[in-house]
Design goal:
Blueprint: E1 2-3, E2 13-20, E3 29-36, E4 41-46, H1 52-60, E5 67-72, E6 85-87, H2 99-103, H3 105-110, H4 114-127, H5 143-155, E7 161-165, H6 173-190, E8 193-197, H7 201-207, E9 210-215, E10 218-223, H8 238-254
Helix pairs in contact: 7-8
Length: 255
């Protein structure tokens, strides 16, 4: 279930020997190394305080490492801001804009021609089950619909690497399961690379190709060998339950 971690020249994201600490404090992590290949869905799990959100801030360029190297699409740049799509746990949808207007926001930042993109966006709204809500305002949407809008807006940044920080964490369990079904059904069409933070072990196994567990002494890679395409019924299979049990043991042992 676990394997060696190595870097690849074709990686969408390569992190090598990353160390970060806030001023005057002990490092949150030291010599951390991981990689994400194009088209992969990789989850990051770990106990509270293990540095998951800090890792995302380093990748996005909001923070700079104390030591180590971060490469995105084989580019080693000090200026990483704007090179990835980022979706936080809170949807951050603007309440005074319609669904379509919210999805168009990244194009305003990049100064792209919005009218030219509208047919493509309407196509994605249909795939996201939101076609009839194009002119609706956020107050008219359910929690799951808002998260779909936020996810589509993140896609419209045009970035190949998407960082999703517990995007379904605030949803109730039934809505979260529906979101899993929706994302699993759509995954083959997205052609994106995803790094995904979650505290939900079932979610991590269900969605991911691999899982990274952040630990006090480093990082551990867990390969998810379950075949794709997947559906939500897989959670009842023996292999799935065994993997969840092992993840629970690893996190409990770490804590």
């Amino acid at each position: 279930m676990t394997g060696a971690i190595g870097l690849s020249n074709s990686s969408m994201l390569s992190i090598q020997n990353l160390t970060y600490s806030f001023t005057g404090e002990k490092p949150i992590f030291q010599k951390l190394t991981l990689d994400v290949q194009p088209g992969e869905f990789v989850s990051v799990i770990g106990a509270s305080g293990s540095g998951k959100s800090t890792l995302f801030k380093l990748i996005t360029g909001l923070l700079e490492p104390s030591e180590g190297e971060i490469q995105i699409a084989q580019q080693n740049s000090k200026s990483r801001l704007g090179t990835v799509g980022y979706m936080p746990q809170k949807d951050l949808i603007l309440p005074w804009k319609t669904v379509l207007e919210n999805v168009l926001l990244p194009l305003e930042v990049t100064k792209e021609n919005k009218q030219r993109k509208i047919p493509e966006i309407r196509d994605w709204l249909a795939r996201f089950g939101l076609a009839e809500y194009e002119k609706a305002y956020p107050k008219e949407l359910s929690g799951g619909m808002k998260q779909r809008v936020a996810f589509l807006r993140t896609m419209m940044t045009g970035k190949d690497l998407l960082l999703l920080d517990e995007p379904f964490g605030a949803l109730d369990s039934l809505t979260k399961r529906n979101m899993h079904r929706w994302l699993l059904g759509l995954w083959g069409e997205l052609q994106k690379t995803v790094l995904f933070i979650t505290h939900d072990l079932e979610e991590a196994i269900l969605l991911s190709d691999r899982i990274y567990l952040l630990k006090k002494e480093g990082i551990q890679e867990i390969k998810v060998s379950l075949p794709r395409p997947r559906n939500s019924e897989i959670v009842y299979q023996t292999e799935f339950m065994a993997m969840r049990k092992e993840l629970e043991w690893l996190i409990h042992h770490e804590s």
